[in-house]
Structure formats: structure tokens, C-alpha cells
Amino acid sequence: MMPVFILCLLQWQQQVHYTIEAYLDTEKHVLSAVEYCRYYNQSPCVLETLYLHIYANAFKAETAVFAQEAQVAGIREFTTLADSLRGGVTITSVTERDSSLTFHVRETILEVVLPSKLEPGDSVMFSIIYELLIPWKFSRLGYVGEHYEMAHWYPTFCVFDKSGWHRDPYHMIGEFYGEYGTYDITIDVPGDYVVAATGERIEVSDIAFIDALIRTGQKKLTGARRRVRFLARNVHDFAWVCDPDFLIEQERVGDVNIQIFYRAENKDAWRNARSYAVDAVTRYSQWYMPYPYKNMSIVNGYGYDGVEYPQLVILAIGETGLIRYTRLFELVIAHEVAHQWFYGILGSNEIDEAWLDEGFASYAELCYLEDKYGTDHSLITVPLVSPVSRTYLHELVYYVAQTNRIEQPILTPAYAFLDIPFSYTNSAYSKPVLFLRYLESFLGSAQFERIIQRYFQEYAFTHPTTQDFLTICEEETNRDLDSLFYRVLRTTDFSDWQVTAVTDNSVEVVNAGSLRLPTDVLIETEFGARVVPLSTERNVDTIILPASAGKVKRVTIDPYGNLIEANRWNNHYPRKFRMKPIFAFPSFDYYTILYAPFIWYSSFDGIQVGMYFFGDQFADVDFMKGRHQWFFGADYGSRCNKMYFALRYQTPVLFDYGVRTRVRIAGSNANDEMHFRAGIRNSFGIPFSRSPQWTVETYLAHSRMMSLEQVDTIDWQGGAVGTFGNTLGYDHAGWHAQLDVAVAHEVLASDWDFTRVTLTVEKEAYLGIPFRMRMFAGRIFGDAPIQEQLYLSGALRINFLADLFFSQAGSFSPQEHIHIKGHGNMRGYQTLHIKSKELFCINTEVPSRFPIRLFFDVGYYRTYAADFGARVVLGPVSLNVPFYTRTDEPWKLRWSIGF
């Protein structure tokens, strides 16, 4: 047996103890505190300097790492704040037994030079007097009005482990790493403030104050200020939230006291929070290990959707939060409560190995949803709406990351994802969930359950690593899993099993990827079915069945659906196909065709009836890779005795890192305009990154007016128009620009010869309030029909969906009371049908992103134009009401409905 002292040297972990007395000044937004901290050196090393995080300094200067990363991430709010709103920590003194210690503040690190060496097995205690200027809340620490969220508010020891000191700064992406210890925290707050915090309440008067509030909903005040005290053991951080408007609900689960803190205006939104928390604590206590603390607080906060601290969860979800018609509020609670196990009890390094925290908590949250609502659970609770599960969303994230080649290895440090935060979502959350699902399926549920429970038994209140989890998996299963873990966690290799050939009695399966994960194939024949394990030793596996099995009917790779694989469409023979009415989320297994009947009425066509179809292998749009996406529809007008059709098709011909090329074809005969267009669209740029995004589309188009019966002849002329065009688009840092050049010539079977050049530039900005500006400039050279000219009030042609319902004639047509964004976009000139061969306009809208907005426009065509008015925006539809238009009738009401 190994001697105990040697074992301690191999498995050492530092311990800390904090006693803090603090005073919160809500007038000045300042916290004054004295912190007594003891550091226990249980390592085999001699220490001369101790290091502490002072994370609040991350917001103090624009040169800090957080500020620099915020700039890179495009978060401008930080740089516009006054110094008094950024906050920061001022260290007054560091003393030991009344003797001053030498210390240095280096951004977010406090270095304390010890007066003598700290030997293994010894401890040292010193005090820190400091003042925290609390920032306005744009991260985890700060205030909004009278509400305070106090995370990372005190100097806290950096972790010292076998890798040395972890003096990580406060990053934009990634969380934290702390030493376990004991916290004895006393805070002096205004008398009407309700405080939620890590740990147990100790102050008798505070306990009475909280009990009265729970029982009666009323606060029993005893003075202008009061003291609260909390004691927490075996935790690696301490956070608290206070607000004078908090109400509290309480529930017990065994020995655990769960308290829900919410603001009165959010009572309806939070009505189920207590039951969700109870359900989560009950399940996780059974699955992993009993919740080891006496208290848990779920708190209504600001900022992030959800953040976790020991025994404390802060959820920024209010009355307009993610709860109506979905299970997203429950999902967030289930996830953050899971962190009390995968973060609170298992204190892994969240910066270097984020998957041990976020991935496992996300997996626990998924198990919660499946246990409560079934494996086919839907996050949407609206009847008749296509279901979407949490598993599907994780698969979607992995699919997008993998097909766009923006995936990074799971064991990439969190801060390295700054350029493409979406990749962090995949690497820390989604792919780890898929890996753990696969691991459970591969190893067996019973064995996997033993692995997780042993993981907690051996590493509770310590800092386990990926290697520790791997070791337990190998010991429990007696398997060599090192290669599997390495390929999944440290590379971006992918698996792509596919059925490549099927005969009467044989099946050929190929893995086109570099990651050959073990899986099974289900083969169904005339006389039965059998499951065959696929070899991972070779890329091609040919399975030959005995003649007695009969002819092969169906083949399914990974019949249980647990494989980590982006392309599952080729896992089936024959390929899977489905038809759905109206709408369904894109499928990873089925080629899907949606269908919808159409019925409408118009004065020209009378009753219109028809059917529309939409088909694709997944959805093909920008960064979303689908294949063979098409649309076809036809409807018949009873009065005009005419048939209308529309056809569109596109598919990628190149889809790789930073480049996506698609072939696109479209044709229709709406409003008696025969229209055809074919082109190639190229998209350049890394999706979800801050790099510029470019689009280049080259196309040929031809249109011919078959008659002028269905259009306003003031806006349309007969004849054919054949054009060759190029469109260049640019998006970056909130700027959007588009340059269009189209040339019509007789060589293209055109009755008109002209060149049209237009430039549109848009920018959304923030100067106290958000606003949007748009500039349009255009010129036509040559002879163009009036429908190809530049319109002052907005575009002439309607987008496809609106084209089904509105014609080009009458009151509800473009240039009358239907507004289509484009061209001059001056809504005040609706109904005037003003068009020109040259046009320049500037549009301003404020406040953008709000339902009610004001617009101001100026322009020039053959004379100057100006207008202003209001918009009411409800999703994709708006009501536009100009107040003033620079015309002979400046105050005439010219309302329109916008699409």
C-alpha cells in the first residue's frame, strides 16, 4: 500500500478561507470591504508570492484584456461608458499582523509578496482593505437602477495546481477557475434590500426578515440599514444579488431549501420556476450524487440568460422572456441547476476544459428534458407546430460548424474562440453533448451511469480533468478509450458512414470521414432483420448475408441515432423521404417536401385556387448547407381563366471554409410578366465571425410583358427586357452595402438598351438611442421601360410571398398602399408613382429595433424631396404613416402597409 504522505503529494489541492465584512453604498454605487483571507499550502512546493484575481478591474481601462476583446467582438457599449460607470477596485492595504505586505496590482491580478516562505503544510493569513466602484452592469458584476448583481466582487486566490499558477485575466468568452474553501461573508445593506447569496443565512434578524417576506409578501423593516451574513463551506466562489423589490417563494426537496427570488412585475413569468427547480434538483440528486448543501437560490437578474455560482443561479428572464409558448425557461433552469453539480461540486478548469462544465451540464439538461417529456420532447408547446427537441438544436449547431469548417477542437481554451463565438457554442456545449450521448450508447447506459457516479464519488469538491474522466471510463469498462477521446476532443475529424451499394444479399458501407466511430448497421431483409457492428479498422466494410436471409429491403446505419455525424442522409437505403403540410423543421434524415393549398380572391382573377410545394435536403440559405432546394407552385384564377406558376431551384456547388457557391434558377408569370433568371451566387467570409462578408452574384434575366391587363400602366410598359447583371454585397461591423450593375441589350433578346447602376449603403448605430441610416444612389444610362426605372417611394416588384396575395394594380399594389423596401424608400411619396432615371435618397429611422419608430427622408430625382412620419413595426409587417411630404399637398395622409 502506498504511504499516505506520498499519496497526499500526488493528489494535493490547496484550501482557502475568506472572512469579509462589506458595506454597500447604493448612493455612490461603492462597496467598501475588509477581507481576511487564509491560504493553506497543501502542495509540495514552497511559495514566496501569492496571486489573487481582482476581476472587477477588467472593466476599468480600455487597455484591459476584457476591453480589448470586447472591441474585437464588436461590443461598443463598453467604450462609450464614463469612467464612473466602468468601476474598478482600489486596494488600500494588504497587512499581516499589522505589518504591511508588499503588493502589486497588474490589471486583474493582485500579487502579494509574503514576508517569509510558505512551506508545504503551512498557512498564512492576511487582510486586504479595498473599495469597489461597482460598474453599470454589462457583464456579470454591476447594477441596474436599484438592482445589484455582485459576482467577482472580492479578491479571490488564483488556483495553484500541478500546472502552476492560473493567473488568467477576465475574458470575454470563458468562465472561471477557483480554489475550494470556506466563506464567512457579512454585508451591510440598506434596510429594505432583499439579499440572495451563496451559502446559509446566519444573522437571526435577516432570517426573520426573509421568513416574514415569504409568509406575507411584505417586508418587516427594523432600521435604515441592516446586516446580512452568509456562511458557505466547500465552495470555490461566492456571489450575491440584492434588490428592494424582490419577492420570494420557497420549496423544500428533502433537506434542501430552494428559494426563488423574483421581481413583482415578473410574477406571472416566474410562476413555474419553483417546480422546475424542484424537478431538476430531485433528478440530479438521484442520478449523480445528493445535493450536498442546504440551500439553493434561483434569482431574477439582468444581463445574461443564465449564470451559475455555488448555490446561486441568476436568470435574466422577465415578463417578456423566453417562456411563452416554449420550454426555454425550464431549459435554462435545468441547465443552470445542473451546474451546481458540473461546476459547483466538480470544480474543473472552465477556461482550458470548458466542456467538463458546459458540456456535462448541457447533457444533464438534455437528460432532464428526455426523462420528463420523452426522447421526442419538443421545446415548443404551441399545438400543431412542428416539434423541435434539444437534441435537434445541438445537432444543428454541430452541423453548421462542421459543414462551414469553423469547428475547433473541444479542448481549445475558451478565450481562443473570440473570432468565432459560434464555434465555442459547438465545442463547449453541442458537440460534447453529442459525444456523451454517443458514449452512453457505446458503453451501455448502466455502465455509463456507474462511470458518472464514480466520477462524483472520487472528485467531488476537487478539480477533475478530462484525463481523470477518461481514466474512470477505461477502468469501469476495461476498454482502451484513449484514441476515441483524443480524436473527438482534440481534433475536428468527422465521421461520415454511408451506404454505397446494396445487392440482393450484400451491403457495402463506407466511412468517407477521418473519424471512424464504432457503430451498428441494421439490415432488414425479406425474412427478418439483423444488427451488424461496423468495423473501424477499414474505410470500406462489405457485409454478405446468407441466401436464407432473403433479399435486402432496407439498410440503416446507426439505427439508434446516437452517432456524432453531420451527414445522415446517406445512412439509409433507400434514401428516406417524407411529405409534410405547410411547415416542418429541416430533417437530418429525410428529404422533405412541404405542401400547402392556396386560396385567395382578387378583383381581376376572382377566386384563385392552387397548390404550392417546397422540397430540399435540409435548408439551403447562406451558411446553412442544403441540397437541391426547390419550390414549385401553380394557381388558377376563376374569373380571368388564367393559370399562374412559379419555380425556383438552387443547390451548392462549392461549400467550404469561407466560400459558398450556389447555382440559382427562377421563373414565374405573375401579373402576366413572364420572368426567368439564372445565376451563380458566391458568398465569401467566415460566418459568425467579425470578418467582412461578401456576396457576388452574376446572372442572366429575361422578362416579357404578355399583357398590361393586370398592372398600372403608369408604372409598366410592354416588350421584352433581357439583362446581364452583377451584384456585389458587403457586410461588416454593422455596415451593409450593395452595388448592382445590370445591362440590357438586343444581344440578350431585349427590346430595350440601357445600363442601370445602383448603390445602397445601410448602417445601424447607437448615439444614446439606436438609429438606422440608409443611402441610395442610382442612375440609368440609355432607354429603359418605366418598370425598370428608379422609384422614389420604394421598389416596384413585390417579394414572392406578397406576390401571391397582391397584384400590380389597384389600391393594394406597390406605389399605392403596399410599400416594398427599396429604391428611394421615401414612404411619404406613396401613391404618387414618381420614378426617374436618376435618384439619390437618404433615409433615417429612429429608434430602430423598437415597435414604434420615426422616419425622416430627403432625396433628389428631378427636384428635391423630403418627408417624415411614423412606423409601427410588427415582425415582418409594418404600418407606415407619413406626417409630412414635400409636395403640393404636404399634409395629405398617404398610409401604406410595408413588407
Automatic annotation (TrEMBL):
Residues 319-485 form the Peptidase M1 membrane alanine aminopeptidase domain. Keywords: Metal-binding, Zinc. Transmembrane segments: none annotated. SUPFAM superfamilies: Metalloproteases ('zincins'), catalytic domain. The keyword Metal-binding applies. Binds 1 zinc ion per subunit. The active site is at E336, Y429. Its cofactor is Zn(2+). Pfam families: Peptidase_M1 (PF01433). GO terms for molecular function: metallopeptidase activity; zinc ion binding. The keyword Acetylation does not apply. Zn(2+) binds at H335, H339, E358. This is Peptidase M1 membrane alanine aminopeptidase domain-containing protein.
